[in-house]
Every structure is written in C-alpha cells, then in structure tokens.
Fold this sequence. Notes:
alpha+beta, 4-stranded antiparallel beta sheet
Amino acid sequence: LSITFSINQSVNTPRVLVDGNQVTVTGSGSGPYNVTYNIQDNHMVPLPISISFTNPSGTGGQSYFWIGNSATLPVRASDSSSAETVSGQTFYRQLGLNSKGSDVSALQTRLKKDGYYSGPITGTFGPLTQVAVKKYQSAHGLKQAGVVGPATQSLLNQGK
C-alpha cells in the first residue's frame, strides 16, 4: 500500500499509523509526503489510517483518522488548535474488552467528545471504555452489551 498526501501548510514531519502501526514518512514542508505499508497475510481490510502533525512552531497540532478508500482532511492554514480532530471515522470491526488499535482510539475520542467517556485515549478497550459504550447504547435505545457490534457501529457511523 502506498499513500501520498500533501498538507496546505508547512508542518513538522507527520506521524502516520496504518492499522495501529507507525510507518516511515518521507517528505517535508507541506509535502508531498509518502508512506509505504506492507500488508501481511490475513490482514483485515479496510485499514484504519491516522495522520497527525504539528506546525513548525510546535504549538498547534491536528490529528485525522479514517477507515476506507479515501478521505478529505479538512485542514486550513489557520489551524492551530491542540485539540484532536477526528474526521471520517467509520467502524467496521467488532470492538470489545481487550481490543486494541487506532479504531479503539477513535471510539474513545468520539465517546469522550459526546460525554460518555472520561478516561484517557489509550487505543485499548478496557473497563472504562466498556462502561462508556454501555452509556452510549443506553442513550440510543440499544441493548447495553458493552461491545461495539453492528447496531452500535451503525449509529456511530451515522454520527449519532
């Protein structure tokens, strides 16, 4: 898999995670940046991809996450917020206790933004994440299973 992207402002070298694995990024300034990721046997597709970066002064940063075939990163030259932004998140796999990866980080970020989760963004689905998922499910009329299955994925993917 080869990924090429540019950013409409000069940034420090971005950090890219593909399926939770940090990959080497080549390029500088506003890009283009290039990433190569070797897909192993039995790999789940689509791949979650996360790109994060800071501006040259190191004071601001953005983080983007998506799963799927393509994404548009809503970056503006004036972006200087240190808050994490998650865009285009789509949940495909079932998530439950001990699940790990960037999709768990995206879930935690989403649940935190919506007021269901107050723990740290760790990328590991632990008891705090499970409680938050149950709260989310209860608020949306779902069975409180504490697992992100098809019904919960559907609501999350609809932005609810």
